[in-house]
Sequence to fold (326 residues):
Amino acid sequence: MPAHRVALPTGESFLVADGERILAAARRAGVWLPFECGWGSCGTCKATLVEGEVDTLFSDAPAIKPRDARRRRILVCQSTPRSDLVLEPTSVAGAGPEWLAVEDRIGTVVANEDLGPDLRRLEVELDRPVPYRAGQYAIVELGPRLRRCYSMSTPSIDGDRRIVFIYKRYGSRQGSSAMWQLVEGDVVRLEVPYGGMWLRDGSDAIVMVAGGTGIAPILAMALELAAGRDERAVEVIYGARSAGELVAANELSAAVESLHEGRVRLVVESPDPTWAGETGTVVDLLSPAASHRYYVAGPPPMVEAVLERLRQGGVGIDRIVFDSFG
Fold:
């Protein structure tokens, strides 16, 4: 397969196959280029293109800004070479942090079952176990140039080859439609793990906020807290448009309420007459406290509203970990 060489200021170089992402090739060659999301959202992997030309594989990546083209800045997670390159990343190292030790895996679908309206639980058995932190996600390859991010909804267990996702089908979107069509025995390729959504050490009270399929990483963290018999005070606020979309409410409640100080609050925007719980949005239930640590996951408008509420309540950004998707 044709390949192009990428050279770095340190004197290191590596080959990138035709159509391959620069970041993936560097990772497989044992060269650490800074990254976090692997998807084009965070901008951590931006590098200066000193020489050569690239193709952008995801032109709508949120981290791509108009000034990047003028400065010849590229996202190495979403770029493939058209020639040999000279790159200047922000830093180069032999290895990154332990929580971003991304590995390639092949998975076989075990189950793809309905949970609620346009919501499913996908269980995949990997060819080999892969460690990850509860709250992180995988990039799943669903077809040629069709890759999507999905958070694991269960914590990592040593030696366990199965990972589970909770996901939503969004109309005619290619990624979620392809995920929906997977059946038992289908094979998919994955890169695991990505993302900085994971529990930090400490004794501070924890507040976790989930909206929609943002419950996947929040549920994984809640299950990890329960398994470790964590003694911190934990409150989880889980919201959806309808009661039928609170698909993980029972499992979440069982985990959190097993803790020494655990509480779950469920909230619905458009309740039916049988709903006896709280009504409104997750923001309505928030009472920010500067001493607490917050974990937030869900669709971008919800996450932005929560972050603004926390900011207004005097919570420092260093006390917030969030994942925006959907």
The two ends are 35 Å apart (CA to CA). The longest helix spans residues 215-227. The longest strand covers residues 103-116. The helical segments are 22-28, 66-70, 174-180, 215-227, 249-257, 300-312.
